[in-house]
Amino acid sequence: MSKSGLSEASAAALPHYLGHRDRLRERFREGATSLPDYELLELMLYAVIPRQDVKPLAKRMLDEFAGDLTALFSASHDRLRQIDGVGEKVADQIAVVGAFITRTAKQQMKEREALSSWNAVVAYCTRAMAGETAEQFRILFLDRKNKLLRDEIQNRGTVDHTPVYPREVVRRALELGASAIILVHNHPSGDPTPSSSDVEMTKQIIDAARTLDIAVHDHLIIGRNGHASLKQLGLM
What span, in angstroms and rounded, lies between the C-alpha atoms of 182 and 194? Predict the structure, then answer.
């Protein structure tokens, strides 16, 4: 058998996905925007699954979250492990990328005055909270120039309730020297529509904060299907 014949035989024996990987990397270098989501996910999976066709897994992961990248990269480790083919390394890789996305969103928010970069505030809160499976109550503490002083989760609750104590909210604002706050919590159901208890709790915090000259700029409710602003809805 000739040397060229051996080369052809060796090439034929190579797994089919190796050529696909090379072609996909080349297409990525030419322009990532042209690639569908599952192919970008494939590229990421190559680092942790070096010897396997990962296209089916990439598509399966996206299908599991109905193509919602925010939900995928916000998902818990346990939730990811429930997907067929997702092991520890893949779940860890998704979590690492998700953490970078969240930090990038937070950095973009911190670099600007909050009220003039509202989209950045919403983007960060959505990134940080939309994928949570239990309610959490978050406060963004702002200085006199409405720049972020501190971002804190005050309480975590159940799937449909988080205990909130207006006095504790105001006390923490005083400790940090905050001049204003933005209230944020999530609805794990996905529907960001405010409840009557959400509205009442907001009014209680506004009343408590007003006596100490602390402004409450808004109360955002974050869901997988969007967000709601109590201020924009005329509910505060």
Answer: 15
